[in-house]
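Here is this case:
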Amino acid sequence: MKIAAIDIGSNAARMQISSVLTNKNKISFKKVEYVRFALRLGMDVFNTGSISHASEARIKKLLQAYQLLMELHEVDAYMICATSAMREAENGASIVERIFNELGMEIHLIEGEQEAELINNVIVTVLDDDKTYLHIDVGGGSTELNIYKGHKKVTAKSFKIGSVRLLEHKEAPDVWKKMQVWVNENIPKGEEVIAVGTGGNVSKLFNMIEGKKDNKASLKDLEKMRNFIEKFSLEERINRLQLNADRADVIVPASDIYISVMKWAGANEIMVPDLGLKDGILMLVYETLMNEE
């Protein structure tokens, strides 16, 4: 069986096709295809409030390409989710309707809480029973914060601040303060807190850090890498550091969110599992298929 997840974010759209593997009644997903394309819908929405005709045309072309890939791979089921940029766009719902009518592909506009819940379903699998975690997921348009005690989520909050929104200076002036207050009020006092980072930017930062242990990096190492990248011009980040063009301009603003939240929470290290929204969507697609049988 093959299933697919498509995540249309504020910066990029991703599709992952995975085979469903069963070993002694344990289910796992093996990636067979992964495609990422920089739609940058947040540039439109956070500046004008809507998605341009040119961007809508690119969405349709990209989804047609994804559709063909899924046909070639003989995908059994898939799901498309769109996050902050498309859900905030004045014409987001009408674009979703036109795409369904023209391509037969249904796009689900999910709220920040739904996005966090989908990621939660896969994040809990890498957490220990007896530790306190602060999960930080930074997208292009929003940041989701979740506090876990072992495998149980204690509380969560979505904030309208993200890498593209910061790049365009479209964040609300008080959002940093609101986020800090929420962290201070909800992090258990006197407990060691481990940060868990998801999102393309923290994954790239993590991969660039030398000497890290397993899947963890220190706050100090994260800050050093952020400051190292900031020294380079955009062109140098692309050519010397070999960052994708749509990653090179947002990685520093995104890292500022991770670092700030970690400092407020008193978290000295961060885990960076190779998991995200697409993995949560895959899990939901599989569970839906099983419930239909």
